[in-house]
Amino acid sequence: MKKFMPIVVFAVLLAVPLFGLNSYIMHILILVLLWSVIGMAWNILGGYAGQVSFGHAAFFGFGAYTAGILYQHLGISAWWGLPASILVLTALSLVVGYICLRLRGAYFALATLALGEICRVSAENLVDFTRGNLGILIQERTWVEKTWYFYIILLIAAGAYLIIKVFMESKPGFYFIAIREDQDAAESLGINTTLYKTIALCLSGILTGIAGAFYMNYMGYIDPETVFHLYNISIVTVMVVMVGGAATYWGPVIGAVIMVFLAEIIRSLPHIGAAHQTIFGVILILIIMFLPNGIVGDYRKIPGLLGIKRLKKKAQP
Amino acid sequence: MAQLELFSQTLISGFLLGGLYALIGLGMALIMGVMRIINLAHGDIMMVAMYIAYWLYVLLGIDPYISVFIAAPALFVFGLGAQKYLLTPVMKVDSILPHNQVILTVGMAMVLSNLATVFFTGNYRSVPVSYASSAWYLTDIWKGSPIELSLSLPWTLSFVIAVVITIALWIFLGKTDMGKSIRATAQDLDAARLMGVNVDRMRMVTFGLGCALVACAGCLFIPIYYLYPSLGKQFTNIGFVITVIGGMGSTNGAVIGGLILGIFESMTATYIGMGWAPVGRFAIFVLALVFLPGGIVSIFRWKKARR
Asked: I need a surface site. Which of A96, A118, B113, B149 has the fewest CB within 10 A?
């Protein structure tokens, strides 16, 4: 049964637009899928290879700006941004990898955090190229209906899932985990850690960039403050994975569902809406303290935390 | 001559700014040295201190320089609590991701900056102290000076107080028992524990001390800077850039790193453009990571070793 789970979920999602849901619900579903893609991408680098990044907004924003600049300066459809972002993000990931991957642990996290901020400030200041704080607006939307956007992001999400599944069940995937568990030991076993960390970074960067390019097409408007935002993009990405469960296949998806719905619910509440970051921060702290491996990773702990003692344990002496 | 004047003016204001930056960097370097984590809530703790100083001035009329003595102890206690009830429990939690404590400080930063927005609105505020725009001139002291320099009074005052605090910290770390225990914990955790140092207590004191230092920096920044809830992020960035330039966890390095960053930022702002100052900050951060991963202190260590 577990084996067919992805196919069942995929089939159900394929059928969703046929129900004729209203466009708000479709919007939420698209956001959930978008965040699942970003979460899965982060999970490759952060969850499996153990290199925690606080700068995925850089990759996301680069993808979005690749699409936006193609439209703005070359006048071609922003959908070309999806294939183009693969090239751009590979180049960016190689540069970032060269600089940052020589650092370990928390210092890598810092370097990526700085990277996100560098991208934001550069995008704000390169006014001729990125239009600065004015942002880029796509004048004509491809579709008014959300159905096709939904199918495109669903395909991207399914592709990301397949890539990760194939990768993690082959040699490189085991190398990633070896690097996460003990980098020196992995090195001494003959794993080229720099190479495999770079591969993880490239894969993660490319998937995030494609999600960013899709975001440009879907939202139709970007500016540096939205796509390079530290809390709203980089940290939410980390949260999606932390809440769902790092280094699990379904963690980012479940995290995305929870985070997107939570964000929508909190923002719609009349007085609490302004404090949504406080609530996110508290959730982050609680998750780290009580469910450090996320809902998927630590689901056995949840009944205990809620005060429901399991009978099995009592039976054992 | 005008060029030289501009240059020395930039240099001196950069130096003054660097003195204040050093104070931010010192707190972060202490925490990084003892606990091996990066406190990403550092700037937001400074923001809290700035709001304390602001409200003390507006409601009670207490001068920001005097509120150093109120804000610093308050945030020292905050730091003790945060370490005891949030960071220490997380250290014992078993998880896949290794940097739980760092992510936890991000959560703290989010809560602090958002709560400030909710309570105090996102408006920019500044403390209208009477001496805010007064300045002194080089020609006042040296009549025949070929170039004219002007320095704002609050900048100079803040710089002097920052230097005094830095020296006090240096004496505390170098001469007192507790300071020595903190340094021992930073150098070798297990050895310190074997020598009878209460490592957990030292961690608490260090985190409190780091918060208190950045609170001082906040109070010193208040007369010369404006205040808004999301300013913390920027100063967190400054803090970790300084610690990387100076060398991870080195307090002496943090002072040098702070001065370098202050001068560098002031130069970028004057000669390239105000908006590019943050890019300049990160550019030296990346350069330091690539070419001098051990920071400034590694140069000194290397020289010592060669001798």
From this structure: B149
Chain B residue closest to A293 (CA)? B95
Q: Kindly report the number of other CB atoms within 10 A of residue B8's CB atom.
A: 14
Closest C-alpha to B31, from B216, B198, B211: B211
Residues of chain A in contact with residue B275, where contact means CB-CB under 8 angstroms, are 121, 124-125
The reply to whether residue B279 touches residue A238, judged by beta carbons under 8 angstroms, is: no
Distance CA B277, CA B265 (A): 5
- Cα separation, A173 vs A176, in Å, equals 5
Cβ-defined contact of A238 to B273 (cutoff 8 Å):
no
Q: What is the pLDDT of residue A315?
A: 45
Chain A residues close to B25, C-beta within 8 Å = none
CA pair distance B274, B270, nearest whole angstrom: 7
Give A103's Cβ-side CA count (13 Å radius).
27
**Range of lowest pLDDT (A190-194, B92-96, B118-122):** B92-96
Tokens representing residue A13 in the block: 């999602």
pLDDT band of A38, cuts 50, 70, 90: very high
Give the pLDDT score at A47.
Answer: 84
With tokens 């894969």, the residue in question is A203
**Helix (H, G, I), strand (E, B), or coil: what is residue B193?**
helix
**CA–CA gap between residue A58 and residue A113 (Å, rounded):** 9
> Are the Cβ atoms of B118 and A103 closer than 8 angstroms?
no
Q: What is the pLDDT at residue A308?
A: 66
Q: For B69-98, how does the pLDDT look when each residue is reduced to its tens digit (9 = 90+)?
A: 888 899 999 989 888 888 888 877 767 666
Please give the pLDDT value at position A108.
83
- Chain A residues whose CB is inside 8 A of the B285 CB are 111, 114
Facing A281 at nearest CB: one of B97, B108, B293:
B108
Question: Which of A110, A275, A289 is facing B240, going by the closest CB pair?
Answer: A110
Contacts A–B by Cβ distance under 8 A: 137
Query: Do residues A42 and A56 lie in contact, with contact meaning Cβ atoms separated by under 8 Å?
Result: yes
What domains lie within chain B, and their CATH numbers? 2-125+151-306 (1.10.3470)
> Which whole number is the average pLDDT over A278-282?
86
Instruction: Give B-chain residues touching A274 at CB under 8 angstroms.
Output: 117-118
- Dist CA A244 CA B218 (whole Å): 37
* Total residue count of chain B as it appears in this document: 307
Give the residue from chain A lying closest to B88, CA to CA: A289
pLDDT in tens, A8-26: 888 888 787 777 778 888 8
Most confident of A5-9, A93-97, A227-231: A93-97
Q: Which of B40, B100, B110 sits opposite A288 (nearest CB)?
A: B100
From the list A47, A99, A288, the residue facing B104 with the nearest CB is A288
